[in-house]
Write a structure and sequence with these properties.
Helix content: 40-55%
Largest sheet: 8 strands, mixed
CATH architecture of the largest domain: Alpha-Beta Complex
CATH class of the largest domain: Alpha Beta
Number of domains: 2
Shape: globular
Oligomer: single chain
Order of helices and strands: EHEHEHEEHEHHEEHHEEHHHHH
Strand content: 5-15%
Number of strands: 10
CATH topology of the largest domain: Spore Coat Polysaccharide Biosynthesis Protein SpsA, Chain A
């Protein structure tokens, strides 16, 4: 069969340090069929827009659309509406892509009955704090979701980025936007799975993800991830899995035992829970090739911020979610 036409869609905002490398990867794909890259720019103020326009002038496969809402979900929807391809393949502005990223995605989609396919999330950093974050993210004891660590094709609840047919995306109403600005992929796949359709991870679909570079950005990222899962619960009346409950229960336990200790002087509960958590973090750090203390610290930040973000999202209630989805 002839290769189906493909549109790569991505939404960017202030990605001047990465956009050229990303577009080099995407325009250099080893794919025999039609391919275009549709970029939704949310009004970048750092020079990203100028870089994009320069690429449009030199590369007819690059198309740029405006994203006045500046958020990722509406940007992806605008890119999908403009796209000419039968198959849409997600990309973003801080990931690198193997030369066969498109070809492997299309092959997996055509060879399975899945509504969507994607590869594992593969965080890569050579040194410093990003390397510690990558070490924590690469541990199944920190991020246990199968799409992070799959070694073969298998059914999962979500994938990193992903490929799917344009008609399927339009039929389900596109990506939904949540107040946190996250979880649009997980929500899309959860809605398809609720219809009885499958999502497949294929480790042959290769990318390299750049982890956050500072404590503040990592905290904000995972706090928003926790909020996003709460927003999915308000929107879909269920969580995509029970995994998000673990960090929330950890935080709840630390707070409860801390209050008990200050109120009654009974410190053993807090000491036991905190000690068990630290031993667990130590085990994670020792198994990583990165700095043991760095990985422990990064994993602790990920757990605490996520565990606070989930109840925060629940306490905000369904109102903000409904207004965001309906806007």
């Amino acid at each position: 069969m002839s290769p189906p036409p493909v549109s790569i869609i991505l939404a960017v905002l202030n990605e001047v340090d990465n956009i050229d490398a990303v577009l080099d990867d995407l325009t250099g794909q080893e794919y025999e069929g039609f391919i275009e890259i549709v970029v939704a720019d949310g009004g970048s103020s750092d020079g990203t827009g100028r870089r994009l326009q320069a690429r449009v002038g030199n590369e007819p496969r690059v198309v740029v659309v405006d994203n006045p809402q500046r958020r990722q979900s509406p940007g992806l929807n605008l890119a999908a509406e403009r796209a000419a391809g039968e198959i849409l393949i997600r990309a973003d502005g801080h990931t690198r892509y193997a030369p066969d990223y498109v070809a492997r995605s299309v092959a997996a989609l055509r060879e399975t009955n899945a509504v969507a396919v994607g590869g594992p999330m593969n965080p890569v950093a050579l040194s410093g704090f990003p390397a510690a974050v990558a070490g924590a993210m690469n541990s199944p004891m920190v991020l246990p979701a199968r799409f992070h660590h799959a070694r073969r094709r298998e059914e999962v609840d979500t994938v990193y980025l992903g490929a799917f047919r344009r008609s399927d995306l339009l039929d389900i109403g596109g990506f939904r936007m949540f107040p946190s600005g996250t979880s649009e992929d997980a929500d899309l796949y959860a809605r398809w799975r609720a219809e009885g359709r499958t999502v497949i991870v294929d480790p042959a679909i290769r990318t390299e993800y750049a982890p956050r570079t500072s404590l503040g950005t990592l905290w904000k990222q995972y706090f928003r991830y926790g909020m996003g899962k709460a927003e999915m619960l308000w929107a879909n009346r269920r969580l995509p899995s029970l995994r998000p409950l673990a960090p929330a229960l950890l935080v709840a336990g630390l707070i409860a035992f801390g209050i008990l200790a200050f109120a009654t002087g009974f410190w053993w509960g807090l000491a036991g829970l905190a000690g068990a958590w630290l031993l667990w973090l130590l085990f994670v750090g020792l198994r990583s090739e990165a700095s043991t203390l760095g990985v422990m610290f990064a994993a602790a930040i990920m757990h605490l911020s996520y565990g606070i973000g989930l109840p925060w999202g629940l306490l905000r209630g369904p109102g903000p979610v409904r207004r965001s989805i309906d806007s």
